[in-house]
């Protein structure tokens, strides 16, 4: 594997008695799209500011291409940031904003003009150069902020919740554009968001954070299908999480029944939690049912029905179905053994990965 | 708000406006067209613009007001900038504002004591072996004290402008490779210019008509328009000429306001 472009080693950040980051270890490879995902206050923006050079960590090392950059000021790092509120200079035109960094480098005027034009073209705002910043819409300001950063040709682009101020439709369009831009530029993107949908759609690798810790990292599919704990399962997508017990390898019991599963390496009879995604549950008749529930309500979501139901033991179930159900009807639910994901309580990511390797071929797990 | 209610609330302000703004200005303009014998005349204006004395006085006033504003600005901007970065900045700001609560006359008398032959300043100069000097009744001491008095009025608007500046802009500038100085020159200063302009308004115009300080500290060596107005109203009793100078000051005020108001985006507060 080549030299990682950014590495955080044992990074801890404290403000007074508060610990914002707890022993963070991160490795970012060149040319990948990474996402820091977590609720507000989880420390994700602090990591971004640390890499950008706006935050001095309490302890630990920040490495850029193998060199320690803890004490390197922001203006001398080959990293650029797209700020959450864009932070465009209101006293300059669009072109002056984009040219700002290049002008400081004292590049020849024609080269600056060329690169600014190229950057504006890349964000599809070629004709906007002479406009005032205040005359732009939120989406346009967003693009200018990106153009201003990429014109510097950084090796790493940091994006601090850049889509949070945009409306839903524009946000979706920008997700495609950002992903496309990252692929065209071939540089590393580190994207910060609290929106799991954004993270899943764009990333090569996601770091799920909470309370200053990275709980799990992996490809979107890995994290969605095999969440390490209750928090990750709940935060990434919707899920039904129930307490259960491991009966034996590949056999689990919950809700008063025993089921086949694909998890192993957990001591027999250990209490665990199981996760079933709403879209993996299928409505069926009672004869074929693995679980029996009573329908409470349903919401039409356009492409599917979101059905809420209760089983005999009082657990709530969320089901996504393309077919509607009858309110108050008693129906059966069925699922495949590999849809059932088992989570151990208090298992750390390293332990989780090690356990997986004991019974899964390692080759299909380390590709991310 | 109903129309009747609106007029009810408007009464105190309307009275204040009428009695203390419109009426005095109207009276000054009216008086400026009368000579000592209470006859209608344009002679006051003719005198003003033809006599070298008044024009020199005007130039003097503008020049000293300019110097006072310049020194005030040179001291206030860095002060406001540093204050804004301090931890207990509200407290430090309060300490800057405190002297404005003390009457200007008291402060002037305090400086007479400090700058006199046996005052603290000369005692110190003697101590380090370069004194004593004539400090009081010099142009330098006049500018010094006037600057001291005006500083808080310049610091406050600049401080507020710095407060309004989005810190993300400073980070963005650093992020794009700007040094501290480049960030200041290209981002911080241009964006806090409205505060500087507001400060200039608050300092330059009152400085045009300072008369108490010119007398008490400047020893009447500096004759400004303020001194002239006082002389005409209290000594020569030529109210017409005094009013004419007053009108000139009001016009100067309007010109300065026009020059220092941001017309583009309404950014001035």
From TrEMBL, chain A:
It comes from the Bacteria. The keyword Translocase applies. Keywords: ATP-binding, Nucleotide-binding, Translocase, Transport. InterPro entries: AAA+_ATPase, ABC_SmlMolc_Importer, ABC_transporter-like_ATP-bd, ABC_transporter-like_CS, Mo/tungstate-bd_C_term_dom, P-loop_NTPase, Transp-assoc_OB_typ2. SUPFAM superfamilies: MOP-like, P-loop containing nucleoside triphosphate hydrolases. PROSITE patterns: ABC_TRANSPORTER_1 (PS00211), ABC_TRANSPORTER_2 (PS50893). Residues 6-236 form the ABC transporter domain. One of its GO terms (molecular function) is ATP binding. This is Spermidine/putrescine import ATP-binding protein PotA. It comes from Levilactobacillus zymae. The gene is potA.
Automatic annotation (TrEMBL), chain B:
InterPro entries: MetI-like (IPR000515), MetI-like_sf (IPR035906). Gene3D superfamilies: MetI-like. It is found in: Cell membrane. The chain crosses the membrane at residues 7-30, 62-84, 91-115, 135-159, 237-259. Residues 58-260 form the ABC transmembrane type-1 domain. It holds the Pfam family BPD_transp_1. It is a multi-pass membrane protein. It comes from the Bacteria. Its main location: membrane. Keywords: Cell membrane, Membrane, Transmembrane, Transmembrane helix, Transport. PANTHER family: INNER MEMBRANE ABC TRANSPORTER PERMEASE PROTEIN YDCU-RELATED, INNER MEMBRANE ABC TRANSPORTER PERMEASE PROTEIN YDCU-RELATED-RELATED. Belongs to the binding-protein-dependent transport system permease family. CysTW subfamily. This is Spermidine/putrescine ABC transporter permease. It comes from Levilactobacillus zymae. The lineage of its organism: Bacteria, Bacillati, Bacillota, Bacilli, Lactobacillales.
């Amino acid at each position: 594997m080549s030299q990682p472009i950014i590495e955080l080693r044992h990074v801890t950040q404290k403000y007074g008695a508060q610990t914002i980051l707890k022993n963070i270890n991160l490795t970012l490879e060149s040319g990948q799209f990474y996402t820091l995902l977590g609720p507000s206050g989880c420390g994700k923006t602090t990591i971004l500011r640390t890499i950008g050079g706006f935050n001095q960590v309490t302890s630990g090392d920040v490495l850029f291409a193998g060199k320690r950059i803890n004490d390197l000021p922001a203006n001398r790092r080959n990293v650029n940031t797209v700020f959450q509120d864009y932070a465009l200079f209101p006293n300059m035109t669009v072109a002056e904003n984009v040219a700002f960094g290049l002008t400081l480098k004292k590049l020849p005027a024609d080269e600056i003009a060329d690169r600014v034009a190229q950057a504006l073209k890349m964000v599809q705002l070629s004709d906007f150069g002479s406009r005032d910043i205040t005359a732009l819409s939120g989406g346009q300001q967003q693009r200018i902020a990106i153009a201003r950063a990429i014109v510097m040709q950084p090796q790493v682009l940091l994006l601090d919740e850049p889509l949070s101020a945009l409306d839903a439709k524009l946000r979706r369009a920008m997700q495609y554009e950002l992903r496309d831009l990252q692929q065209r530029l071939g540089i590393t993107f580190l994207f910060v968001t609290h929106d799991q949908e954004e993270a899943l759609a764009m990333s090569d690798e996601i770091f799920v954070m909470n309370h200053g810790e990275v709980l799990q990292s992996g490809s979107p599919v890995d994290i969605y299908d095999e969440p390490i704990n209750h928090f990750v399962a709940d935060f990434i997508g919707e899920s039904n999480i129930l307490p259960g017990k491991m009966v034996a390898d590949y056999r689990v019991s919950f809700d008063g029944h025993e089921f086949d599963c694909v998890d192993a390496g957990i001591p027999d009879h250990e209490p665990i939690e199981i996760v079933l995604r709403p879209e993996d549950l299928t409505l069926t008749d009672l004869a074929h049912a693995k679980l029996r529930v009573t329908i409470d309500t349903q919401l039409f979501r356009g492409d599917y029905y979101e059905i809420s139901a209760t089983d005999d033991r009082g657990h709530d179930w969320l089901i996504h179905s393309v077919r509607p159900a009858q309110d108050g009807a008693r129906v059966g639910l069925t699922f495949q053994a590999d849809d059932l994901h088992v989570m151990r309580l208090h298992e750390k990511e390293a332990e989780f990965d090690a356990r997986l390797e004991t019974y899964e071929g390692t080759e299909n797990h380390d590709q991310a | 708000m109903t129309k009747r209610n609106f007029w009810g609330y408007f009464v105190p302000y309307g009275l204040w406006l009428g009695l203390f703004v419109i009426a005095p200005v109207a009276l000054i303009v009216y008086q400026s067209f009368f000579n000592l014998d209470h006859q209608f005349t344009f002679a006051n204006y003719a005198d003003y613009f033809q006599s070298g004395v008044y024009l020199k006085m005007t130039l003097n006033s503008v020049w000293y007001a300019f110097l006072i504003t310049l020194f005030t600005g040179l001291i206030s901007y860095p002060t406001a900038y540093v204050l804004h970065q301090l931890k207990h900045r509200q407290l430090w700001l309060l300490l800057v504002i405190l002297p404005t609560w003390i009457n200007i006359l008291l402060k002037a008398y305090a400086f007479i004591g400090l700058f006199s032959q046996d005052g603290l300043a000369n005692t110190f100069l003697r101590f380090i072996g370069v004194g004593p000097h004539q400090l009081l009744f010099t142009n330098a001491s006049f500018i010094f004290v006037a600057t001291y008095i005006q500083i808080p009025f310049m610091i406050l608007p600049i401080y507020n402008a710095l407060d309004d500046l989005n810190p993300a802009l400073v980070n963005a500038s650093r992020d794009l490779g700007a040094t501290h100085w480049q960030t200041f020159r290209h981002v911080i200063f241009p964006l806090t210019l409205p505060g500087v302009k507001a400060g200039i308004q608050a300092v330059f115009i009152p400085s045009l008509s300072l008369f108490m300080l010119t007398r008490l500290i400047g020893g009447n060596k500096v004759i400004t328009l303020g001194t002239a107005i006082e002389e005409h109203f209290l000594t020569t009793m030529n109210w017409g000429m005094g009013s004419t100078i007053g009108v000139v000051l009001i016009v100067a005020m309007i010109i300065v306001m026009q020059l220092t108001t941001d017309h583009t985006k309404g950014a001035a507060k």
